[in-house]
Amino acid sequence: MKWIPIGLLVFVLGCLPAGDGHPADEEHGEDSISSTVTAFERVIENYDDGLKALFLDVADKLETGELSTEIETNTFLQQQSKAIRERAFMILNRDAAQIGGEKWNPQVAAEYWRKQAGSGQ
């Protein structure tokens, strides 16, 4: 495994806010996913797919000259990775909404988040 400099990782990945749906959501059709797969696992898969596609896009843009400086490349990566992250986390937002509102209580919420962490099965 190669190590990624922490500064670059923080720069590219940033924080993990919510956003709107991602085209990859349809590709991974939530109805076709086993009920044993958590929303968090779908988020990670979606985010992973999105970042891989972004990195290939950046490589192409560098080779064609569309991106030609380190600053341009880093800015593009930062902007695009934020959008990918926000879209991926919308999966979790939609899933967590099923325990929200009048259905929310601390015990139900705790069980839900334990399940997302993989310790509630």
How would the blueprint of this fold be written?
Blueprint lengths: L5 H8 L9 H5 L11 H26 L5 H27 L9 H12 L4
Helix pairs in contact: 3-4
Provide an overview of this structure.
This protein is mainly α and 121 residues long. The chain is built from 5 helices and no strands. It has helices at residues 6-13, 23-27, 39-64, 70-96, 106-117. Mean pLDDT is 79; it is low at 1-34.
Low-confidence stretches: 1-34
Q: Based on helices, strands and strand pairing, what is the structural class? A: mainly alpha
What general outline do the C-alpha atoms trace? Answer: elongated
What order do the SSEs take from the amino end to the carboxyl end, as H and E? HHHHH
What is the tally of helical segments?
A: 5
Write a concise synopsis of the structure shown:
The protein has 121 residues and is mainly α. The protein has helices spanning 6-13, 23-27, 39-64, 70-96, 106-117.
Q: Which properties best describe this structure?
A:
121 residues, mainly alpha, 0% strand, disordered N terminus
